[in-house]
Amino acid sequence: MHLRVNAESAAFYHAAAIEEDKTNTKLHDLLATQKKLIRWEFVLKFCISSADYLGSILSYIAIAFPIFYGHYDDLPPADMSSLISKNAFVSIYLINCFTTLMDQASSVTDVAGTAHRIGQLFEVLATLTEDQKEHRNSLCRPYSESFQEGSNSVREMTTRYAFEMEGVTYGPPKSSIVCCRGLTLQLKPNSNILVTGDSGCGKTSLIRIISGLWRSYQGSVNLGAGRIPQEIMYLPQKPYLTNGSLWDQIVFPSSETEVIPDDYKIYQYLSAVGLDPLVERIGGLDKDMDWNWHDELSPGEMQRLSFVRLFFHHPPFAILDEATSQVSEDMETILYQTCADLHITLLSVGHRNSIRRFHDFVLHISNDGGWTFQPLSNDHDGSRPDGGGGGEGSQSGHREQRDGAKGGRRAV
Ligand SMILES: Nc1ncnc2c1ncn2[C@@H]1O[C@H](COP(=O)(O)OP(=O)(O)OP(=O)(O)O)[C@@H](O)[C@H]1O
């Protein structure tokens, strides 16, 4: 499966020989396990069949013994044959019950295996604390459930924040790695934040903390608008595309019935990101495609399509995790400019200098777990592309050059 999905990449590496070797090793492991299983099944089936045959033989012995030992000699022939037939009926009935029971043995072993796995699952679930269950439930809140709430309050959110974190120390779960220590950050309307840092410093991990996928080691994360999926949208580096038509990709994660169909708006956005030829190629916006969208679109097209999704939903906040890494700088500018025109406040992870002018602040995470938060006004011409200018002097005032904990990355 892994090879089938990544066949092209493997072919570019001319990796046929090594992948064949690895696949054969896995196949041999599988065959060895199957052989073991067949051996055990053979023993089980042999015992069951032997018990079946033994039962039939036993029933004949039980009937024949009294006859040949002369217990029925003094009975008239009619009574004797009736008694023998009664004995035969009872013994055959008992043997039949016994063999049915034995035949269930293989089903019982199957059920026992499944029951054991379910038991293990229950044991793990029982170890979850109430707090963790609440956290899990909040993550499972479906987008559709909050649709009404979100659509009513989208514009009200301009006065609120997407999230705020205070003294947050985080890293991968159940790990000793600390990506960032004591981070204090707030995403407010019209104040875009750019997150920078070396590869592996914890930029995506920060987004995982904000979205609630990971929990912080220390500190508090309060989700304002971020609690409502309608008000914040996450664009990962590798977009998620669902089954169905192009229309389904754009309205995702809503369903068709939850959104107002506005083909004109969608065509406008598709054309802005240069994806209008795609509509012609597939034969219409709502033509159901049975292909895998990930195989049919290039990485850049997928990223542009995910921006069309963002523009269509038009949330007040968006979090972009290297969401333009596969598109050209010109296209990147168009995408960021459209976000600015739509007044979508961004927290973005990105490496290109060209996107700095679309941000008001930069959060830099260093490899030692420290961080700095600075205004970007000195780095560009001082004016936001939407003319807003951020107006967040007070926010940067007390956070400017604020350092996170010093020292190397260490275990907690
Ligand atoms: N699921 C995981 N389990 C354990 N450790 C992880 C997991 N995901 C990431 N890490 C580790 O956490 C650290 C931070 O990873 P993260 O993905 O946040 O880096 P990043 O700054 O986004 O990197 P890049 O710029 O390359 O995308 C890395 O050391 C990484 O190996």
UniProtKB/TrEMBL annotation:
Gene3D superfamilies linked to this entry: P-loop containing nucleotide triphosphate hydrolases
Q: What is this protein called?
A: ABC transporter domain-containing protein
Q: Does Transmembrane appear among the keywords?
A: yes
Listed under GO biological process in this entry are: fatty acid beta-oxidation; long-chain fatty acid import into peroxisome; peroxisome organization; very long-chain fatty acid catabolic process
What SUPFAM superfamilies does the entry give?
P-loop containing nucleoside triphosphate hydrolases (SSF52540)
Q: Which family does it belong to?
A: Belongs to the ABC transporter superfamily. ABCD family. Peroxisomal fatty acyl CoA transporter (TC 3.A.1.203) subfamily.
Q: Which residues form the signal peptide?
A: none
Where are the annotated segments for Disordered? 374-412
Which Gene Ontology molecular function entries are recorded, alphabetically? ABC-type transporter activity; ATP binding; ATP hydrolysis activity; long-chain fatty acid transmembrane transporter activity
Q: Where is the composition biased (Gly residues)?
A: 385-394
Q: What CDD domains is this protein classified in?
A: ABCD_peroxisomal_ALDP (cd03223)
Alphabetically list the UniProt keywords. Answer: ATP-binding, Membrane, Nucleotide-binding, Transmembrane, Transmembrane helix, Transport
- Native organism: Pomacea canaliculata
Domain named ABC transporter is located at 163-411
Entry-linked Pfam families: ABC_membrane_2, ABC_tran
Q: Where is the composition biased (Basic and acidic residues)?
A: 397-406
* Cellular component annotations (GO), alphabetically ordered: peroxisomal membrane
